[in-house]
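Re: weekly structure request thread

Next one in the queue (324 aa):
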Amino acid sequence: MQSNLNRREMLAATGGVLAAGFTASPTASAAPSSTRSAAEPFGYCFNTSTIRGQKLGIVEQIDLTSKAGYDSIEPWVRDIDDYVKGGGSLADLKKQIQDAGLTVESAIGFAQWIVDDEAKRKEGLEQAKRDMDTLRQIGGIRIAAPPTGATNQTDLNLFEAAKRYRALLELGDQMGVIPQVEVWGFSKSLSRLGESMFVAIESGHKQACLLPDVYHIYKGGSDFEGLGLLSGSAIQVFHVNDYPADPPRETINDSHRVYPGDGVAPLSEIFRMIHQAGFRGVLSLELFNKDYWQQDPLVVAQTGLRKTKEAVLKAKLDQPPKAD
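Done, posted below.
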């Protein structure tokens, strides 16, 4: 039965596994937790999708992220590749990042590591290798691993997906970069928190971890309470954003994401839950709001950081949790 487990059967088969949670080996974060306050125990990262519409190059993105006051940056690999194609040096880029006082906590890539087609999967691993090499040369330590190529697949075998994620993790061991299983709420595979958790757990690899996203967990239909089953080290980067009450879950899309605190997501509960679980990683602001893309990119970045911090402070993480 297990060899044929798919996404529809997974929930019935995996309850005991998920209840135990899982741990991943902790790695360095943008700022050691010892340098953060009890009220703000997380690092703050900027995903450059938030200003994608302004069409800035990676050099400008780094400068803006630093000026806005973030600890770290989460670039898109395609922007780094464009920089190199234009004659840019990865060594120079690494120095710019260091001089700006930033780290590269994660990056966004789209290698097809999970697909059933063996030839495409092999090509996907080669792309992942190139992406990891590029990322490592600029000081990056993690990369997103979404279910690219299986977005419309409804019968993905989750045990096979776990084996493929392990292969990606083993490649990451060689390259010095950790791939993070990313929850994609709009996808027909790995759209739910439990599915992504299952793939990470069943990979059986010590570096297995998730890349959750407030919007994607909502879009995929999972309850945020599921985050309470994870140890803090199983999540090293968390994509933070918010979503409005309308349009409804069925028709909401990436472009509807808003600044933290400007929507209806239960951010205080989410932050308290992951904090209590031991998460001390980074919150990476990831938005695709087309209205924001029409605005001054520095103002957008600064507003996003301010509102993210306000949302964290509103959660009152420095206070003891309330008794049930």
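The mean pLDDT is 91. The two ends are 39 Å apart (CA to CA).
Next request, please.
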